[in-house]
Amino acid sequence: MSDVDFIEVYDDALSAQDCAAIVQRMQHSNQLQPGRVGGGVHPDLKHSRDLRISGSEDWRDVDQRLQVAVFNGLLRYLRRYPQALISPLMLQVPGSDGQPRRLTADDFPAMDERALSDLARTCLRPGAINLQWYTAGEGGYPYWHCELFPRDASGETLHRHLLWTLYLNDGFDEGQTEFLFQQRKVAPRTGSLLIAPTAFTHTHRGNRPQGGDKFIATSWILFQSAQRLYGQP
């Protein structure tokens, strides 16, 4: 039986100094809002103070730094799980004879970083980043949930392919990201990046931190729109 759970954690995705600077800026921000779930503000499901930084000129530098860290992690993830691209999209590339041929998982080990980066950017796009602050003994996201749901007419929330969380601090007890079916708890470590699938198979929750506040950055990696991938019908 395989022990593959499709949950990857990459240490030192962001430096401890960068993480501390982000936490400090967040603590002094006047833009914090009550944490939201798909259906709105429900503190019984998720209790946090959140700050969406994507699209904010004041936070552009942090947004870019985080997106670069996540993209580097994504490339590592695709090296291990090329099926994340080729299974849903049935990708084709020009063969040596100039005719299109299907990409297979065997093509990925020899693919250079630039080619893999171009492929990832062609098929996938970053989601908006949300910074989240969970207060010790009170904050958390204890409701078992996944990241896919048919919320909007555009299907945007159904384009979420992978979830990610970058832990901005540690030094507290508990506060793990816990996956239900995999029976796995990921302990926060400053600068580490968690990537996992978004579907119900990876139902998860954020346990309450104890003895100290927990700070994270989080978002999704989404498929490009159908228009971008396939053109207008």
From TrEMBL:
SMART domains: P4Hc (SM00702). It comes from the Bacteria. Residues 5-222 form the Prolyl 4-hydroxylase alpha subunit domain. Its EC number is 1.14.11.-. GO terms for molecular function: oxidoreductase activity. It is an enzyme of class 1 (oxidoreductase). InterPro entries: Pro_4_hyd_alph (IPR006620), Pro_4_hyd_alph_FE2OG_OXY (IPR044862). Keywords: Dioxygenase, Oxidoreductase. Pfam families: 2OG-FeII_Oxy_3. Its cofactor is L-ascorbate. This is 2OG-Fe(II) oxygenase. It comes from Stenotrophomonas capsici.
